[in-house]
Amino acid sequence: MTALDLQTRPESPARWFNPLALRQSWLSMDKNDRVVEWAQSKLGIAVLHGAFLLALATLPVIRGKHMALIAMTLVLAALLPGRRGMVLAGMGILFFLLRPFRSEFHYTNFGEIWPEIGVLGAMNAQAGLMACSLVFFGLVLLLIENHRRKAVSVLAERPILSLLIAGTALTALTVLVPRDQGLFTVAWILVAYLSSSFFFIGYILMAVRQKGRMDNTTLLGYVRPFWANTVVPIKGPGYLAKFEAKDAAALAVTRLKGLKLAVWAVILFWTGEIVFNQVVHSTLGLPHFEAHLKAVAVGGPASVALGWAVVAIYFLERVLVFGAVIHALVAIVRMAGFAIPRGMVKPLGSRTISEYWGKYLFYFKELLSDFFFFPTFQRCFKKHPRLRIAFATFMAAFVGNILFDVICDAPVFAIDGFAATIDNFYSYTVYAGGLTVGIIWSQLFQGKVRPEDGFLRYQVLPRVIVLGFFALLQIFDDSSGVIPLGDRFAFFASLFGVN
Question: Please, are residues 259 and 48 in contact by the beta-carbon 8 Å criterion?
Answer without folding.
Answer: yes
